[in-house]
Every structure is written in C-alpha cells, then in structure tokens.
Automatic annotation (TrEMBL):
Belongs to the nitroreductase family. This is Putative NAD(P)H nitroreductase. Its EC number is 1.-.-.-. InterPro entries: NAD(P)H_nitroreductase, Nitroreductase, Nitroreductase-like, YdjA-like. FMN binds at R10, A11, S12, R35, H39, W133, V134, S135. It comes from Acetobacter orientalis. One of its GO terms (molecular function) is oxidoreductase activity. Residues 18-163 form the Nitroreductase domain. SUPFAM superfamilies: FMN-dependent nitroreductase-like (SSF55469). Keywords: Flavoprotein, FMN, NAD, NADP, Oxidoreductase. PANTHER family: NAD(P)H NITROREDUCTASE YDJA-RELATED (PTHR43821). Binds 1 FMN per subunit. It is an enzyme of class 1 (oxidoreductase). It comes from the Bacteria.
Length: 196
C-alpha cells in the first residue's frame, strides 16, 4: 500500500476487539502526534491511556458525569456508555493542555490537538488498528476532565476508542474532493459543495 492509499483507506470504526496496540506499538503511534503542526511549539496534546481494569473505573466517572449534566439521563443511555467505556480494548482520553495567556490564540492550540489526533488515527490505521473519535456533552465537563488529569484551563477534546477492527468493512463512500476546492482569481470563490 502506498502512503496515499493508506490515507485514503482510513475509516472510523467502533466495532473493535482485542488486541489493543502494545505499549511499543502505541509509543510509535503517539510519536506521530509530535509531528503535528504546532504554532509556538506549545505541544498542547495530552493522552490519558485507559486500559484493563482502569476501564470500568473510567466508565463510572463517565456515568457520573452524564448524571451531573442531566440527572434524568435515560438508563439505556447510561448503560450504553458504561458498556462501551468498560469494554473497548483501549480508550485514549484526548487532552488539550491549554495556555489562555499565551500569545498563540486558544483556537490555534486546539487545532494543533486536532491535527495531532488525525496523525494518531492515521498511524493506528497504518499499523493495522481501528479507532473512532467520540465526544458528547461529557467532553465539556470540567469535573470529568480534572478527574482524568486535565484540570482547568485544560480540557478534553473527546476520546479515541482503539482496538483491532472486528471485521473488514466496505469503505464508506466519500464526497468528491473537487466540490470542496476552487481556484481564487480575484473574486470570492464558491464551492460546489455549497450549492443546493
Ligand atoms: C471532535 C470530534 C468529535 C466526534 N464525536 C463523535 C461522537 O460523539 N459520536 C460519533 O458517532 N461520531 C463522532 N465523531 C465522528 C467520528 O469520529 C467519525 O469521524 C465519523 O463516524 C465518520 O467516520 P469517518 O472518520 O470514517 O469519516 C466525532 C468527530 C470529531 C472530529
């Protein structure tokens, strides 16, 4: 597979089984995060690794967060999240180590975390693993973030569920990239993607 084939064949999946990447494989995968564009070299990305017996502990914190945000959260929703966070082979809580007083704007710091996350997703795919980036309202819960090691002003950017894809799936259809670019020649461009 060429590097471009690899990038073009990545797709998210939450149908994940054991094994998760070994510590050595994970170190290689996370090394790609350090290649993300990063204005000011702030290195705002942080990875909280949750595996094995830590998963049910994390799942309880997730459920507590859901109930904090919505005391009437439906039982089925709580059970689904508890199960997912207890059973995914590896969970990576994505941390944003933010510096509000830095001259680099916060949005640029957050973008660097997103860029690093994309490298991690691609590296997982390149090494035969599957993953999906999930969020939900709990991502914005400062209490949960602090419990995971990201006290304010630091934040969560979501979670990666990581493991081995349970099955080979038909790759999802993707839009035509030509719809998302246009040459600017002096007047504002329009995009085919935005036409009704
Ligand atoms: C910041 C962020 C948060 C996301 N949160 C969720 C989520 O909570 N649930 C979900 O189903 N997909 C979520 N997604 C989308 C999936 O990660 C994934 O991109 C989507 O399922 C499409 O799959 P693809 O990556 O193969 O295009 C999120 C994506 C991003 C970038």
């Amino acid at each position: 597979m060429t590097p471009l084939d690899m990038l073009l064949s990545r797709a998210s999946t939450d149908h994940l089984v054991e094994p998760a990447p070994s510590a050595a494989q994970l170190a290689d995968v996370l090394a790609t995060a350090m290649r993300a564009p990063d204005h000011g070299k702030l290195r705002p990305w942080r990875y909280v690794l949750i595996e094995g017996n830590a998963r049910p502990l994390a799942a309880e914190r997730i459920v507590a967060s859901m109930l904090r945000l919505d005391p009437n959260a439906p039982e089925a929703k709580l059970t689904k999240r508890r199960t997912r966070f207890s059973t995914m082979p590896l969970i990576i809580a994505l941390g944003m180590h933010l510096r509000p007083d830095n001259k680099i704007p916060l949005w640029e710091q957050e973008m660097a975390v997103a860029a690093a996350t994309m490298n991690v997703l691609n590296a997982l795919h390149a090494t035969g693993f599957g993953a999906v980036w999930v969020s939900g309202e709990i991502t914005e819960d400062p209490v949960l973030a602090a419990e995971l090691g990201l006290p304010a002003p630091h934040k969560l950017a979501g979670f990666l569920f990581v493991g081995t894809p349970a099955e080979q799936r038909q790759p999802p259809r993707r839009p035509d990239p030509a719809q998302f670019s246009a040459y600017w020649t002096g007047t504002p461009v329009t995009f085919a993607a935005d036409k009704e």
